[in-house]
């Protein structure tokens, strides 16, 4: 290819570039569709890595619940079921508001998007607030593993509420609580990151981004948020609902 | 050869006379291990030579000067199949052979004499049932099956006797076993092969394999006077085990006579074999080992008995054929625990002092007035 | 000896006026770049630094092991030395070696793209790598860590007072660097191939990196969470791995090796990709059994996830699970064997020349064969009992990692050096370095097989005197090996200023990267390439030669 052709091509490229390509199309992508698909694929892959990440904790949980079932039942029953259920509902609703946000973005409804993002942030903060209350409760009840751990509260799972668990079994409740704090803590960390990003998205959405045709960012963040929600949906029954019986 | 430097010459001589490619074959399994090794070496050599020949001859035959134009060959399913199936078949042979060897080494015969090994940073303690205690050494008779029941007091260690071709990880929290039959008297290396901290390389010792007569002499001369079981008996009484496990009818705890290797039914219906691990586990986690028909009231002794103490207790229980010895401990004041707390009433867990007492085998019966369930800390 | 190297006329050849190296100037343009080629160079520099640091520790280890007595350094220092050597070499050198340097540089060009899918994430990867390096360095400076690179509990959680958490967090961060690189590669390979570039027209280098990326993406997060658990246990003393509190130290082993076994395939697969390219180019032939080699890469990745407990055969796993893992280990050995045979068969009726990358490739084939076969020794249960935790293991993994992977890395760096820099390295010196490395390597590590069978344990500071001779041989080899590695440092740097101008395709290789100028322009391609030929199509190349794109501008 001689330099004349090269020069002509370069000029054509420049003209073509300024005209047809939207500002958000990155230079290494050929088309907007390619970029969208690549970014979406990337996000799904990232979520797959997150599944593997939590997977290690789930493995540990699987092992120890198998080994120390009685202690796990007893310890699980000391978690506040009301707060836990509320949190689950809060997160599910926040997933809904996030999905609404994605819809609004696609419909180019800026106000709707801002409302949805704000609602999601709010619900996320409520979740974290309730979590803080729960952690505080655990602190006051001396259920935080470590030096201050006390085994007084752990009763025999077969509904004999006055019979304390034998100490060697009750000590294993520490492992339950370690997993509880590790898993919900890791989850909460992901929530915090998500909420921080939501603030950034809210700011940019208020400036008009995401409602002019380029919804990729909101779509993919929505994926992340739903993932965090799904992790909780697994955590909730595994941690809170071990052999719970309705109160007599 | 005086024109060689004397140092270099000594070096060469030493090398040639002492150079070994294999450790001595001092156990029954060693020749089998070496045979397998030869096989593996052989197929590796064949594989390497094959690859080397291919690379060597092709690169000479088809170098650019000889073959300026390369010939495109897409592939050959036949060749692919060949060099998939043949290696796979060879590897399967290795798998089967290796598996057989592994099962042989890690499934001790039932008639093996048992020696306990406790590993800790950074030494090995060997506890013979007859009451001999060794540190960083292990005396064993030649020609007898010897099983080692091992546990660690702290981190992972690994008990390795290269001359016997055996090795097993020594794990904190549960027993691991390995067995061998020495065939040649001699002194062989004992190594710890799992990195365990600062003095990992010093955690070495000697395995002394002796003829049966020499071994007899050694056991007679090295005993501390109390066999492991006798120490176990003492501990059994001083910890108050005999108050619930008294062997009388209607006792709070199951009768332990004859329990070793029998099938027991646990609370919840499962049936397990009461092996060493079960006995040890029952002492440390009694509630999960509770037997059917008995209330799960046994307290845990986690933190109160050392691994050596547990070994002594296990050894004692293993040897119980009838309740006579237990009854003896109930009646004999030499065995009675010197303080309250051993009456068998449900103890107050939180106020019990966790002394972590190390029950040394040749400690005298405790007659001091210290509080707590065990003798004073080591 | 004949050569395929065809350089432009050195009298009037110049480097291209405009390339990725001079498109922008200034430190910021490098530190905030999104250009995969610049990021590759950044990685190259940092990885080389860490390689020599890890190598220095290795030198000290071998120096100590000259004598049976622990007389050079104290025991704690020795333990810190081998831990640092392992951590740096595995996480800061081997895992990113080919993917982050040569892979980053060349993979987008090979698929016909202008950059990786996520250039900013690529830059983030490098920054994470640098942060990880700094954190690990600081753990060393603060006093070192002596857990071994395997962080075995309960030693690491309860029985050491060194900087375990710092080191663990450094490795954690490095893990994310790796994950993002893998993620980038997978999306790029799926979504950014040029028109006509079907999966089976891709160079095998891309296939290998794709397989390695799957491992990076799926395996590394498990390491991350395992290290978090170790840090938490160490900080708060909970007992997840502590048997006195009901925990299971074996759980750590399972979690750790679930990543660390696939990690070794992460380390070797990209190297195998390099070998495919080099063997093909220097035999002037398409790789024999392209499809078999491509699928073998993926097979290694898939099987690699199912064999982790072969690191735990003597640790108290049940006999039956040991059986299963041993069987699967035998299966995972087969695809590697297939690749070796395919490469050897590629030589048949080729037109072979012996430039430096080819010498490294030959070295790889011999040494990796030995290393891989000794893996079969270790995968056989009974044999493993005697050999595990001894110097046999050390020899095995050094054969595959150093004799295999490091040689492949050097092959790759030499092969793509003209593309990355526009200059050729001096051939005579480089051949000398390759041969020196090969000889030094064998002398260093072969005696260790014998030591292993004799029973010398690994990670030993002192040893029984009868092992001294073999240790002396090993240390002597290490000295030679060190020279073999220092030489490229020197002459590669020299070549940056004084090397011959390479032109766009000095090797006359196939592949999109050889059809653009050396060094490439920032956007890689002036116009999107359209691919209508197969990989390694030397006939096509022979016809294309008169119209080759030479220098631009």
What shape does the CA trace of chain A take? Answer: elongated
Give the overall pLDDT of chain A as a whole number.
Answer: 86
- What string gives the helices and strands of chain C in order? HHHHHHHHHHHHHHHHH
Number of helices of chain A: 8
Oligomer: heterotrimer
How would you sum up the major sheet of chain C?
none
Helical content of chain C (DSSP H or I, runs of 4+):
55-70%
Give the count of structural domains of chain A.
1
Point out poorly predicted stretches of chain C: 546-553
Number of strands of chain C: 0
User: Of all protein chain pairs, which has the greatest interface, and how many residues does each chain bring to it?
Assistant: B-C, 92 and 93 residues
What is the percentage of strand-forming residues of chain A?
Answer: under 5%
- How many helices of chain C? The count is 17
The low-confidence runs of chain A, each spanning 5 or more residues with pLDDT under 50, are 1-9
Describe the structure.
- The complex is a heterotrimer of chains A (248), B (378) and C (553).
- Chain A is 73% helix and 3% strand.
- By secondary structure, chain A is mainly alpha-helical.
- Chain A has a single domain (35-241), classed as Cytochrome c oxidase, subunit III, four-helix bundle (Four Helix Bundle (Hemerythrin (Met), subunit A)), CATH 1.20.120.80.
- A two-stranded antiparallel ribbon of chain A has the order 1-2.
- The longest helix of chain A has 36 residues, at 32-67.
- Chain A is elongated and about 75 Å long.
- In chain A, 36% of the residues are buried.
- Residues 1-9 of chain A have low confidence and may be disordered.
- The termini of chain B are far apart.
- Chain B has nine helices and twelve strands.
- Helices cover 34% and strands 17% of the residues of chain B.
- Chain B is α+β, with helices and mostly antiparallel strands and 378 residues long.
- Helices cover 66% and strands 0% of the residues of chain C.
- Chain C has helices spanning 27-31, 36-64, 75-94, 97-111, 119-141, 155-158, 164-191, 204-236, 249-283, 290-304, 319-347, 356-379, 381-387, 391-421, 427-454, 468-498, 538-544.
- The longest helix of chain C is centred in the middle third of the chain and has 35 residues, at 249-283.
- Chain C is globular and about 70 Å long.
- Mean pLDDT of chain C is 93; it is low at 546-553.
- Classes of the chains: A mainly alpha (248), B alpha+beta (378), C mainly alpha (553).
- Chains in contact: A-B, A-C, B-C.
